[in-house]
Write a structure and sequence with these properties.
single chain; 518 residues; mainly alpha; 20 helices; globular
Length: 518
């Protein structure tokens, strides 16, 4: 790894770490306030609507991935004319995607209140008009981002300056969360609270881009051909986002129970927070791998990917092995004092949500290589089959278990999501090692298997032998000891079965630490 790439990677990683830690803290604050001040069903509504809006926002995702891939080479060559052509095409496509997002949001706003009944904290029905206005308030930030910051964000990310995006996003998140904390105390309606949070879109990225990329002409003749993979990239990104929100989306359709969706949202919030920790080491990694690929440094690329894959699966084992033990007592403590009808004591749902996360992260390193290499068209069938299996298995199990209660139906849905994740992992194993990394698929398959086994080895003894803590302080102390135990188990297993990769990884981490201050 060169000094320049190392410095950029360290900057990106540290800034992303700050943002993800901020997002975790803010993410834990917001749902509890919504539940306490407005009730579980309002929070469930927000959880459900957020997932749908996130899915609509993926109109931009395929474009973002396509722009990133297209920009790697001209940025490396400092070809200002080519960069301007791609930026101009991106501006036009983002505007079109923004209008599509607006149309979908409006249509969803009209339909949703007639499908899912919602009651307030006092058990009184919330009017359809109020629900519609709330959904529009939540969707406003997405609409504004399409027309303002999105095109600058991808340019900055492609140039390995993700730290700028992270710091701007952190500032916006802190401001919006501050509004969500303060306004309920002032007795503001939930619509006002969400609208104020949506209006915290910053212009920092546009100012930064204009200052550091003055040569980019967003109105230059657009190079549409450079973004020809956008629809193929869109299929990949839509699949990834659908899988992450499938529990809430299918849960909304099958159960139509806003209170239950709040329960799901609180448990899912934990795995989202852990995904944020993993993002600390993956944000900006695409541009580094992309730079190695376009420069033809195959050996360096393979070694870097092997080290990354080893580290990623180790972190998944540690984080989710510990989370399997800690998630239920955390949710119990987190929702202490909630007096509405929602039941947050759901151990089976907690374990299934952990399983959903682990099966999803099994394929994440390979997903990153698809984005890096730009091979979106080749994996469209993988995406189709993953979504099909998730919808069929999730909906089928949900409807089958519905007579036994909405909670069991939701558990069936989450189990169906796990099936889709596992299927996609198998598809990726058949494609990525052969077409992108050039590394034997058996090595990746063995690391994935070891990740599953290690996670169980960490969690099972603690679940069977240790009583859950009853206070937040004891929970935190127990969590620290559990993470240390999980780290020891994971290091021992990796040392026994993947020693060469672990040594290479330690050398790389040591090198990066030496260059933090340079």
């Amino acid at each position: 790894m060169s000094t320049t790439r190392t410095a950029r990677f360290v900057q990106n990683t540290l800034s992303t770490a700050l943002y993800q830690l901020t997002a975790m803290v803010m993410g834990f604050i917001t749902p509890r306030l919504m539940i306490l001040y407005y009730g579980s069903e309002i929070n469930g509504l927000i959880v459900s609507v957020t997932e749908f809006l996130t899915y609509f926002k993926m109109l931009e995702a395929g474009l973002a991935a396509s722009v990133n891939v297209a920009l790697y080479e001209p940025l490396a060559r400092h070809d200002h004319q080519a960069i301007s052509g791609i930026a101009s095409a991106a501006r036009l496509f983002y505007n079109a995607a923004g209008w599509m997002f607006t149309g979908l949001t409006v249509a969803f706003t009209i339909a949703y209140p007639f499908f899912v009944p919602v009651r307030d904290l006092n058990g009184l029905p919330v009017s359809h008009l109020s629900v519609m206005v709330l959904i529009l308030a939540m969707g406003l930030s997405g609409m504004l981002e399409f027309f303002t910051m999105a095109r600058y964000r991808v340019l900055i990310a492609a140039d390995q300056r993700t730290y700028v995006v992270s710091l701007a996003s952190m500032s916006s998140l802190m401001l919006s969360t501050a509004l969500i904390v303060v306004l309920p105390y002032l007795g503001m309606d939930v619509i006002v609270v969400r609208l104020a949070a949506s209006l915290t879109i910053l212009v920092l990225l546009s100012r930064y881009a204009r200052k550091h990329y003055p040569y980019v002409d967003p109105h230059a003749p657009p190079n549409r051909a450079a973004l020809s993979t956008r629809w193929d990239a869109l299929s990949v990104e839509l699949t990834n986002v659908f899988q992450q929100g499938a529990g809430a989306i299918l849960g909304t359709v099958v159960t139509r129970d806003a209170g239950l969706l709040s329960v799901y949202g609180v448990y899912h919030m934990v795995t989202v927070g852990l995904w944020g920790i993993l993002k600390m080491g993956t944000t900006g990694i695409n541009s580094i791998f992309g730079n190695l690929l376009v420069s033809g440094r195959k050996t360096a690329f393979q070694r870097a990917y092997r080290d990354f894959e080893c580290l990623y699966y180790m972190l998944v084992s540690i984080l989710f092995g510990a989370a399997a033990v800690l998630i239920v007592p955390f949710v119990t403590l987190y929702t202490h004092g909630v007096t509405d009808a929602a039941n947050y004591d759901a151990p089976l749902l907690g374990m299934l949500i952990i399983a959903e996360a682990v099966t999803n992260h099994a394929k994440m390193p390979m997903d990153l290589m698809i984005t890096t290499s730009g091979k979106f068209r080749e994996v469209r069938s993988h995406c189709f089959w993953q979504i099909a299996l998730t919808v069929v298995c999730g909906t089928g199990l949900g409807l089958l278990l519905m007579p036994y209660g909405t909670m069991r139906a939701l558990c069936g849905i989450v189990a169906g999501v796990c099936v889709g994740n596992l299927a996609r992992t198998v598809f990726q194993l058949r494609f990525i090692p052969k077409e992108v990394t050039g590394i034997a698929w058996q090595k990746t398959a063995w690391r994935i298997t070891r990740m599953f086994v290690t996670t169980v080895l960490i969690a099972a003894p603690c679940l069977l032998l240790v009583d859950p803590p009853q206070r937040f302080f004891s929970w935190a102390m127990y969590g620290v000891m559990l993470v240390l135990y999980a780290s020891a188990v994971t290091l021992a297993v990796t040392w026994l079965f993947d020693r060469k990769a672990l040594r290479s990884l330690l050398e790389r981490l040591t090198f990066m630490l030496r260059h933090i201050g340079r």
